[in-house]
Design brief:
MetI-like fold; 281 residues; mainly alpha; 2 domains
């Protein structure tokens, strides 16, 4: 009787019982392989407890040198550089959002019926987003020279690849019944797209673009390190001469800026899109 109850419970709630047979051995094998690869990785990279402890001690020393933060009278100059960084993030995201919409339409399976075109757009976006914005910044600095223009192009290039993928997936996840309803009124293909598909995805497009503005402020800060302008240039310059108090001051300004942009972005999503979209994003 007890064996029957155990068998019944095991069949009803198998997750409460340990796995047996081939399933258990498969799990143990994966665990052993994962641990082995992890240990080999630590050995290959020469990561030891001693090195970690020394690194944390040096990090604590650097944090000590950052207190208290100070600007040495360069607050206005830093604020202008942060404004330049925010402008880079906004313009880069705007360009990427505009370019990603037609590319996503060409890459969505339920919009573009021609397979080779979809394949080309999808794989091209994979290549573009496969390179980090920092790599694109180095590339564009060599082409257009130092300054925020190179940073804008780098952010736009990387974000176009990412947003194309996100927008195309949003288009493919639309409700086909709404499109069928529009088509039933006698609408053509373009009218069905405009009135049946795009209204479903525009809130998602806007939510993604607003998030990328916030994210690109952080990315644009890093791009300044390679000559793309903005606050990153001053951050790298202060770090190279070990002016750690000014570094701390710049970091605090960047954190405050990102927090403000996050609040504004969230407010815009709430007013333009609705609470449900904010919960998802």
């Amino acid at each position: 009787m007890n064996d029957f109850k155990a068998t019944s419970w095991r069949s009803l709630r198998p997750e409460l019982y340990p796995r047996r047979g081939l399933s258990a051995w498969r799990g143990y094998t994966i665990l052993i392989i994962s641990l082995t690869l992890f240990i080999l990785g630590l050995i290959e990279l020469d990561i030891t407890i001693d090195r970690l402890l020394k690194g944390f001690l040096k990090l604590a020393d650097v944090f000590g040198l950052m207190v208290p933060p100070e600007s040495k009278g360069r607050t206005i100059e830093f604020m202008w550089a942060i404004a330049e960084t925010v402008a880079m993030a906004f313009l880069g995201t705007l360009i990427a959002s505009i370019l990603a919409v037609p590319l996503a339409l060409l890459g969505a399976r339920n919009v573009m019926p021609i397979g080779p075109i979809r394949f080309f757009v999808r794989r091209s976006s994979d290549v573009v987003r496969g390179l980090d914005s920092l790599v694109w910044a180095i590339f564009f600095v060599g082409i257009v020279g130092l300054g925020p223009f190179a940073g804008i192009l780098a952010l736009a290039m990387n974000d176009t690849g990412v947003l194309t993928k996100l927008y195309a997936e949003a288009l493919e996840n639309t409700d086909p019944e709404q499109s069928k309803g529009v088509r039933a009124t006698g609408a053509g293909r373009i009218q069905t797209l405009v009135f049946g598909v795009l209204p479903q995805v525009l809130p998602v497009f806007l939510a993604n673009s607003l998030y990328f503005v916030e994210s690109n402020v952080r990315s644009a800060t890093i791009l300044g390190v390679v000559g793309a302008g903005g606050i990153g240039f001053f951050l790298m310059d202060r770090m190279m001469i070990s002016a750690w108090r000014e570094v701390a001051y710049i970091i605090l300004m960047v954190l405050v800026t990102v927090a403000i942009i996050d609040s504004v972005s969230r407010l815009l999503r709430h007013r333009l899109i609705g609470q449900s979209t904010i919960t998802r994003y």
